[in-house]
Structure formats: structure tokens, C-alpha cells
Amino acid sequence: MSRFISGLQKVLKSDHGQGSSQQGGGPGPAPSTSTSSQPAHPPSLGQGGKVSVGYFPNWGIYDRGFKPQHIQVTSLTHLLYCFADTRPESGEVFLNDAWADEQIHYDGDSWDEDQSRTLFGNLKAIYALKKPNRHLKVLLSIGGWTFSSHFAPVATDQAKRGNFVNTAVTIVRDYGLDGLDIDWEYPANDREARAYADLLRELRGGLDTLGRELQVERPFQLTIAAPAGQEQAQKLHIAEMDRYLTYWNLMTYDMAGSWDKVAGHQAPLFSANPGAPSVDSAVQFYLRAGVAPQKIVMGLPLYGRAFEHTDGPGRPFRGVGKGSWEEGTWDYKSLPLPGSNETYEQGIVAAGCYDHHKKKFVSYDNIDSAMVKKRVSGQKRARELISTAKRIVHICCIASPPVHRGAQSGGCNVLGAH
Questions:
Q1: SS3 159
Q2: Where does the record place a coiled coil (predicted)?
Q3: How many Å apart are CA 145 and CA 83, to the nearest integer?
Q4: In angstroms, rounded to a whole number, what is the distance separating the alpha carbons of residues 10 and 15?
Q5: 180: domain CATH number?
Q6: Beta carbons of 249 and 181 less than 8 angstroms apart
Q7: What is the 3-state secondary structure (H, E, C) of 191-249?
Q8: Which of 66, 259, 329, 388 gives the lowest tally of CB atoms within 10 Å of its CB?
Q9: 230 belongs to a structural domain
Q10: What is the end-to-end Cα distance of the chain in Å, rounded?
Q11: 66-115 pLDDT, tens per residue?
């Protein structure tokens, strides 16, 4: 794929700032691992100073038939392509579905080309979307709920960690990407949390080395999917991690689900009860930890979490029932469910739908709650809704349907209807 890689490197220079020209068309040696402790470069903002992040799961092309061409690219500043995996025995980062990632042929792709040297698949299609939309940053997301168990044995081993960095950065270079996103759910103890910070430091160094090799001006980006629950978040070495990260994509969703004892809202802006999880409490936790507000990205669920045999939020339930593809999870286009009434709790800024006959409640963000969150994320006039509202800059690491919990059966509708 050397000819294709050469073209990608030219696009990288254009997207990240033009440097002097390179000699030769193929990729150079794998970027060296750096232990630089320099802080991350200031984040680059989207049009209007906002960031809108969407996930594209590579498995979405199968059952749902949602292809890269369906993505509403103009609505996004960042697209996270998920998920790459890691070999726990070696630390190698690899694309986990060769057919979806590199081989499937879409309209306009030719079988006459050398299949061993030409990139096809989702990554070529997304590259094609990026060419006329140079504002779009495409990052490879590594891990996710299903693959997160592979992080600890790699991050805690210096040699494996170095291989992780080299192979991940090589993928960024070879596929013309704009950076990396790490989704580790979750470090279990301080040793793993320490290793997480080390991994991010070395990734930051590796990406900066790549930037120098390609002679680009704007840095490659490094983000993480950050836990919203304080039980997980308080384990992290946040102050140090923040030095290396471009953005913190807060997973401010899945705050209620089948794992609970009572039905609840999965992404309330405020908590109904003291100590209960909420978007507000998650954001303020990271602000108190010293994360700059312009680096916080608020998560928004574009899918529904269901509860059956219940009188509604805060009440016991029995089962979650079927969903669009996964039990208890409904695609956004199916909501509100037929026969149900949409509800909106203004006090906590949370929405859903409830079927009184079937006693079924589904939690999701509707237009009302989403618009309030959008105002809170960026407009000073909404500061009465949340004490730090005027400081929260960005809206949503958009997961639709969920790509973290139960990743293999999650969905794919990224800011688009299909």
C-alpha cells in the first residue's frame, strides 16, 4: 500500500500544517518511543470554537448496513473510528476486522487494482470523506468495553508498552489519521492507573516524533474516553494525564441500565438525589481536578436504555426486554416507542418515554434535554443551569447506540438517519 500511504502523508501535511517536502513516497521507520513529559499542545477547536465528536464502530456496516458514506460529516469536527485491539502478549496494536477496515469494496472501488497494495474498506471511505472536509479530524479509538482487559498487561510492562506506542503511531502514519483515542474501561488500581499515565506520556511523545518526521506544524491529537463515575475517575492520575491529552471525552451516559436495582435516567444533567451520578457532577469532578474546561467534551447518548415492569424512574424494574439489536437498547430512530408518551423532567434535564399499558420506560435524550445540554456546553446565558456552564466548551462524545458497554453489539448511527 506504499503508493496509497504516500498520498496520505501529503494529506497529513496539508491537514496539520505544511512543512518542507519529504524525499521518497513510502513510509519511514516506525516512530521511536519518547518519554517526553511536555504538556499536550493547545486543542484545536472546530468551527465556532466548538467540538462535536462522533463514534463510527467498524461493525456497523454489517447488520445495520450503516456505511461511512452515511455519516453526516458536516455535523462533526472529530470522528473516532473504533475499535482497534491490542495483543496482550506483545503489546501490538492492530485493526481487528480486516474485511471491514481495509478490504470491503464500496461503490467506485475497483477489483482490477492490486488488492495487496491498495487500501479499501471503511478506512479508505472515511479518507475519501475527509478530503473535501478538511475540518474533520479522524482518530483511531483503541480498546472499548470488550477489549479493555488487554490494556493492563501491556501498560504495566515497559517493553510491551513501547510496542503499543510504536505500532499505534505507525497506524496513524500509514492510514493518514489525525491521532489516537484510548478507551480503557477501567484501570483497577493505582498500579494500572500509573501505567495509564505512562502510556499516554509515551503516546504523546510518539505522536510528536511522528509530527517532526513528517514536518507538520499542528500536532497529532490524543484523547481518551474518560469515566463519568467517580469510583473509576478518582483512581486516575488526572493532573499528569491532562498534560498529554488534547481532549477528555467524558462518558456521561450509561448512568443507569440493566445492572441497577431501579429504573433510572442514563444521562441526567443533574442528579435527582444527593450523590447520584449526573453529567454535572462528572464535569465538575474533572474541573476540580484541574482539567481545563476547553478540554472537556460532554457525552450525549443517541440511543435508549430500557426498563420493563416498572412504574418509572426510581422504581424497581424486572428485565429490560428486547431492543433494536441488543436487549434493552433502542436505536434513536425508534424512539419514542409506539404506544408510549415522551417525558421530560425539567428539574434534572432528563428525558425518556413511558408506556403505561406495558409499564416500560426508556431513557434517552430528546430534543428538549439535548438542547439544554448544548446551551450549557457553550453559552454564558445558560450558566444559571449549572455553576460552571459558561466554562464548559464542547458538546458530546456522541455514541449512537452505545459503543462502550457491550461493544460487539453496539450500533453505528453517527449523527445521521438510516
A1: helix
A2: none
A3: 10
A4: 9
A5: 3.20.20.80
A6: yes
A7: HHHHHHHHHHHHHHHHHHHHHHHHCCCCCCEEEEEECCCHHHHCCCCHHHHHCCCCEEE
A8: 259
A9: yes
A10: 32
A11: 899 988 888 889 999 999 999 999 999 999 999 999 988 888 776 767 66
Spatial separation of the C-alpha atoms in residues 207 and 209, rounded to whole Å: 5
At 254-266, the pLDDT tens digits run 999 999 999 999 9
Of how many residues is the chain composed? 418
**Position 188 pLDDT exceeds 80:** yes
Single out the residue of 110, 87, 62 nearest to residue 412, CA to CA.
Answer: 62
pLDDT score, position 354: 99
3-state secondary structure at position 317 = coil
Q: To which H or E segment does residue 100 belong?
A: none
Q: Is residue 222 part of a domain?
A: yes
In the chain, the number of structural domains is 1
Residue-wise pLDDT for 324-333, tens only, equals 999 999 998 8
As given in the structure block, the three cell numbers for residue 80 are 473516532
Cell of 136: 474533520
Catalytic residue among 92, 185, 202, 213: 185
Q: Which domain range does residue 185 map to?
A: 2-16+45-253+402-409
Which cell numbers in the block locate residue 43?
486543542
In the residue annotation, 185 being an active-site residue is answered as yes
pLDDT digits (tens, 9 = 90+) for 215-228: 988 899 999 999 99
178 lies in some domain:
yes
Q: Three cell numbers at 16?
A: 496539520
At residue 63 the predicted structure's pLDDT band, cuts being 50, 70 and 90, is confident
170: DSSP letter: H
Give Cα separations from 341 to 337, 353, 355, 359 (angstroms): 8, 5, 6, 11
